[in-house]
């Protein structure tokens, strides 16, 4: 059984964060271990507050779990504080962790700022380099690469690729769930290749919650199983279509995924 280490925040409603991540890994027959970075107050409608875990306690948990379990891949979601990000970066290097997938959770769809601007700079210029792939959505990619993204035309993608090279980012999957149009297209950009996958978009814009968390956890699970990035993306896309088709209304806000 392949082991995925989830490093993410806690959403008590289960629509996002570790509760969802663990269910995704389990649905794909992986084993999920988890170190929580932060607690949030949120429901299916919005995020209200965030409290990061003490960074020393976070590091203590992380080291014990990594030394014992030796994960086959790592999914990084909400970090919660720059102190936690610094500790995590040190340990990603110390333990030479592999198949590191980072979902750069910067701002919630409802507008809650998860990261202050100096924290974003640290992620851009120090943290992302240590990851094998980052998986930004439209808004996150605009912030990270300092480029306006209205569509995934060739010129936009080559601009992102050129900036990735300059910033030392190895691979990036641009997620297109928030772009206009009939298709939900995602693009894997490596240092020398560009590879697209797409599906018919379901439902109304922003109607479903947790798609970003589920996507990165599924991708990390496929990497743990030994798929290369292209095949892992194809598998993840198929898995996401199934999850989105089966999304459910559990509260007064957006639909959630229930793997
Ligand atoms: N309505 C939709 N129909 C089909 N696929 C979708 C839809 N919305 C998102 N996706 C897919 O789900 C995955 C996650 O993409 P998305 O752009 O929604 O990420 P995100 O913005 O990080 O998620 P979240 O809204 O949870 O923050 C991608 O594969 C994307 O193409
Ligand atoms: C804990 C957590 N992680 C990630 C997101 C982004 O969807 C969220 N809303 N909450």
TrEMBL record:
Read off the InterPro entries from this record.
HMP/HMP-P_kinase_dom, PM/HMP-P_kinase-1, Ribokinase-like
Give the UniProt entry's GO cellular component terms: cytosol
Note whether Transferase occurs among the keywords.
yes
Specify the enzyme's EC class, one word. Answer: transferase
Q: Which residues form a coiled coil?
A: none
UniProt keyword annotations, A-Z: Kinase, Thiamine biosynthesis, Transferase
Give start and end of each Pyridoxamine kinase/Phosphomethylpyrimidine kinase domain: 11-255
Give the pathway annotation: Cofactor biosynthesis; thiamine diphosphate biosynthesis; 4-amino-2-methyl-5-diphosphomethylpyrimidine from 5-amino-1-(5-phospho-D-ribosyl)imidazole: step 2/3; Cofactor biosynthesis; thiamine diphosphate biosynthesis; 4-amino-2-methyl-5-diphosphomethylpyrimidine from 5-amino-1-(5-phospho-D-ribosyl)imidazole: step 3/3
Query: What name goes with this protein?
Result: Hydroxymethylpyrimidine/phosphomethylpyrimidine kinase
Q: Which GO biological process annotations does it have?
A: thiamine biosynthetic process
Q: Which domain of life is it from?
A: Bacteria
Q: What is its EC number?
A: 2.7.1.49, 2.7.4.7
Q: Name one GO molecular function term.
A: phosphomethylpyrimidine kinase activity
Catalyzed reactions per annotation: 4-amino-2-methyl-5-(phosphooxymethyl)pyrimidine + ATP = 4-amino-2-methyl-5-(diphosphooxymethyl)pyrimidine + ADP; 4-amino-5-hydroxymethyl-2-methylpyrimidine + ATP = 4-amino-2-methyl-5-(phosphooxymethyl)pyrimidine + ADP + H(+)
Which family is this protein grouped under?
Belongs to the ThiD family.
Instruction: Indicate yes or no for the key word Lipid metabolism.
Output: no
């Amino acid at each position: 059984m392949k082991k995925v280490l989830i490093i993410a925040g806690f959403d008590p409603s289960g629509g996002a964060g570790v509760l969802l991540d663990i269910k995704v890994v389990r649905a794909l027959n992986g084993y999920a271990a988890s170190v929580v970075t932060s607690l949030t107050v949120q429901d299916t409608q919005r995020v209200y507050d965030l409290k990061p875990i003490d960074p020393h306690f976070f590091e203590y948990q992380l080291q014990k779990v990594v030394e014992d379990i030796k994960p086959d891949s790592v999914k990084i979601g909400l970090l919660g504080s720059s102190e936690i990000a610094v500790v995590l970066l040190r340990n990603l290097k110390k333990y030479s962790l592999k198949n590191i997938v980072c979902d750069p959770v910067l701002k919630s769809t409802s507008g809650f700022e998860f990261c202050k601007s100096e924290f974003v700079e640290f992620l851009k210029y120090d943290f992302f380099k240590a990851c094998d792939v980052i998986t930004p959505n439209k808004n996150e990619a605009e912030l990270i690469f300092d480029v306006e993204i209205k569509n995934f035309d060739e010129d936009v993608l080559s601009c992102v690729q050129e900036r990735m090279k300059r910033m030392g980012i190895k691979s990036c999957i641009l997620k297109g769930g928030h772009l206009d149009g009939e298709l939900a297209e995602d693009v894997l950009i490596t240092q020398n290749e560009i590879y697209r996958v797409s599906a018919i978009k379901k439902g109304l814009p922003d109607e479903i919650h947790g798609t970003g968390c589920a996507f990165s956890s599924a991708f990390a699970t496929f990497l743990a199983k030994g798929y290369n990035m292209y095949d892992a993306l194809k598998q993840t896309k198929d898995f996401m279509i199934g999850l989105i088709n089966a999304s459910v209304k559990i509260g007064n806000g957006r639909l959630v995924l229930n793997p």
